[in-house]
Design a protein that fits this description.
With about 160 residues, this protein is of the alpha+beta class. The protein has five helices and four strands.
Length: about 160
């Protein structure tokens, strides 16, 4: 049976979730996280998009993305996931699937939902008991968004970062 097409709407933001295959750890070292973030920068420039939030956990990636052309969102995610899978398999001398099913995407309907989605993904490391405060987690957008430090993928327009504090 063929997969159903995603509902994509221009001008909208999307909550994206990519889960690893069989809950395997897909980030085994700081170099892996750094590679994923470099790929994220590369693909956000190749397929113009704003990344408003992200969180990389050992078995799952969360993104809040606003593509300039929503038709390129599938190409963005395909490139990201394929590139990281190739890197991971080569780095760890392995073969096979890195990602589970195709990524999940949810349309974010309004600004309040956008703010809640960003807070939700940045709180994931606390929920999974990896840190006590989301500000402590190195592999999310939280520290950069609030303090202007950490891993910079995107810059929110002036004033938006204040709303999310």
């Amino acid at each position: 049976m063929a997969r159903l097409s995603r509902f994509l709407k221009n001008g909208a933001c999307y909550y994206i979730r990519s889960q690893s295959h069989q809950d395997q750890n897909i980030f085994k070292s700081d170099l892996d996280y750094e590679k994923y973030l470099r790929l994220l920068k590369k693909y956000k420039h190749r397929f113009p998009a704003h990344i408003y939030g992200y969180c990389l956990l050992p078995t799952v990636v969360y993104l809040i993305i606003h593509p300039a052309d929503v038709g390129q969102l599938p190409l963005f995610m395909q490139g990201m996931n394929q590139s990281y899978a190739m890197y991971f398999n080569i780095s760890y001398a392995r073969a096979g699937k890195v990602w589970g099913q195709r990524y999940k995407s949810v349309l974010i309907l309004n600004d309040d939902d956008l703010i809640e989605c960003i807070k939700s993904i940045e709180f994931m490391p606390v929920k999974t008991k990896q840190v006590i405060s989301p500000m402590e987690y190195r592999w999310s957008s939280c520290a950069n968004r609030i303090l202007g430090s950490g891993n910079i993928i995107d810059t929110m327009p002036p004033g938006e970062a204040e709303i999310l504090k």
